[in-house]
Amino acid sequence: MPRKLDASNAHFRKAIQRLPLGVSSNFRYWGDDKTIYVKRGRGARVWDLDGNAYIDYRLGYGPVILGHCHEEVDAAARDGQTIGTVFALGTERELVVAELIHEMMPAAELVRFSNSGTEAVMAALRLARGATGRDGYVLFEGSYHGLFDAAMWMADVESLETIEDDPAVVTYGKGIPGLTRQLFWQVPYNDANRLEDVLRRNRDAIAAVLIEPILGNCCGIPSTPEFIRAVRDLCTKYDVLMIVDEVKTGFRVAKGGAQELYGITGDICTVAKAMANGYPIAAIGGREDVMRHFGQGVAHGGTYTAQAMSLAAAEKTLTILRDTDALARIAAYGRSMQEGMGKILAARGIPHSFTGHPSMGGLFFRETPPANYREWKLSDYSFYDALAARLIDGGVLCEPDSREPWFISAAHDRACLDETLAIFEAAVDATVGETRKTQRRAAK
Ligand code: PMP
To answer: Ligand 1: which atom is nearest the Cα of residue 146?
Structure first.
């Protein structure tokens, strides 16, 4: 039974009068009668305006690593507010948080703060350009680095005819200057030969290779260990900086992020989401000689950087992640959930696989997991789309788009797991039933 969304729908009709699409991010618009407005969240659960309860596997696209309304983090944030908000001057806590980041992620020898992932990656790219004196950069198919012109280009895999052909590179939408296309090369993920080819030919023009170590916006497809090590070696060999974008993976897939998981060190790295449980803060870290370019000709700043409340939330969140087994519990939950889902799907003969790290894994309807974005197209994502709609109706809040991984928080407990699997089983059966009906109708 589809759940009732009367109150959300009524709010949408009012909101659309003042807010484009009725929301504050295009991604939050799910259709005129499907857009959800949240009343509140607590722990791993979220309630909408109609009182529908959901187990949340989106977590605001990842940040809410300890669960919604985490008492200790919120108390720390309130304490941070007693200092003030912003001063256009530094405060002592910046150093405390920078030390924590460095301790957990040693690649961040020096640290600068930003407000969002987008801002941090923009600053990282500017830093790389300033440090090398070159403007070009390399992006990988299927990656996402935020909403700024240089990164708002993607591989158009939906119109791919064969998996071997290079997909067209298109903008995320209107308003992106075509001129910016001349500044980057897009390379298939997990393909070190193609990367080397680009670097060999264009090293004099390229400042940086910008990489998500795990494609956090594309089913959670991970780098193979060989690939990411090759990226590291190739960047060194061709004297190009490696920017590891850990906005999603940082302080989530391991205390030291994906760099710890893979045993690699970026020249520059960016972190954001999991560092403050949802409070707006991000950071750029990196090699000392590179980072010192901030202040030696490379601009960086911003009215709200290192805002007191967010800094205090970051200090508390990072301390909890460092000192407790939260990340181990999150990964264990993810593994148990995948195991449970796997049993349900296998019992029905539905080909499937899981991608990525269990704390941010992708569910994929094909026997073998994808190694790159092009392979996502080979999966039955229409089954995922239909299943996701039923899961959301049943109270499991996953992303309607199969490219977004399922995020787990430390607040997801046994009760959430049991409930999730029961809802999943019913949703799979209903989706299979519906698919059969559609097929029968088409055959007539
Ligand atoms: N980089 C990566 C890897 C991301 O996943 C995101 C956001 N999903 C960003 C950058 C941009 O971050 P924000 O939305 O905070 O601007």
So the answer is: 11
Which numbered atom of ligand 1 lies nearest the CA of 282? 15
Cα 150 to averaged position of ligand 1 atoms, centre (Å) = 14
Q: Which two tokens stand for residue 213?
A: 């170590």
Q: How many CB atoms lie within 10 A of CB 367?
A: 9
Show the ligand 1 pocket: residues with CB < 6 angstroms. Answer: 61, 116-118, 121, 144-146, 212, 216-217, 245, 247-248, 272
Confidence of residue 303 (pLDDT cuts 50, 70, 90): very high
* Minimal-distance CA residue to ligand 1 atom 5: 248
Percent of the chain scoring above 90 in pLDDT: 91
Q: What is the pLDDT of residue 1?
A: 67
Domain boundaries 6-68+325-443, corresponding CATH code: 3.90.1150.10
d(CA 270, CA 260): 14
Q: Under CATH, to which class is 71-323 assigned? A: alpha beta
Name the helix (H) or strand (E) containing 100: helix 93-104
The residues spanned by each domain of the chain are 6-68+325-443, 71-323
Distance, CA 216 to ligand 1 centroid (Å)? 9
> What are the angstrom distances between the C-alpha of 241 and each of 109, 232, 247, 296?
15, 9, 18, 18
Q: How far is 100 from 93, CA to CA, in rounded Å?
A: 11
CB atoms within 10 A of CB 303: 8
The pLDDT value given to residue 442: 76
What is the spatial distance between Cα 65 and Cα 409, in angstroms, rounded to a whole number?
4
Per-residue pLDDT at 444: 73
Q: Which atom of ligand 1 is nearest to the CA of 273?
A: 15
Confidence of residue 175 (pLDDT cuts 50, 70, 90): very high
What's the number of CA atoms in the CB half-sphere (13 Å) around residue 170? 11
* Strands (DSSP E) found in 102-253: 110-114, 136-140, 153-155, 169-171, 184-187, 206-211, 214-215, 221-222, 241-246
Long-range contacts of 341-345 (CB under 8 A, 24+ apart): 341/421, 341/424, 344/421, 344/424, 344/425, 344/428, 345/428
Q: Each residue of 150-166: pLDDT tens digit?
A: 999 999 988 888 888 89
The pair of three-digit structure tokens given for residue 63, joined into one six-digit string: 């940040």
| pLDDT tens digits, 370-396 | 999 988 877 778 999 999 999 999 999
**156 C-alpha to ligand 1 centroid (Å):** 20
